[in-house]
TrEMBL record:
SUPFAM superfamilies, per database record: TrpR-like
Domain of life: Bacteria
Gene3D superfamilies linked to this entry: TrpR-like
Protein name: Helix-turn-helix domain-containing protein
Organism listed in the record: Clostridium porci
Amino acid sequence: MNKKIKTEAVDHLFDAILTLNNPEECYKFFEDVCTINELMSLSQRYEVAKMLREGKTYLEIAEKTGASTATISRVNRSLNYGSDGYDMVFSRLKVEGPDPD
């Protein structure tokens, strides 16, 4: 865990997020907490990570999500060298890996 983000304020935010029960509540909360651009950036990064785990190419990801290659590379670095947060969520949501040929 990155000690730079581990603060009491971040703990409070995560506690608040953990009280949300469904997508509608998430929409209400995140629309108040984030700007539209911040929320769209977060969702774009998540989609990029998902597509990378599905074995998509940078070109396919850029075309579908509009993400820059720098963003795709940053997300890829998180997938490979981060805290495994994406993979934890993907396993819980049963996100599929690349199709074996």
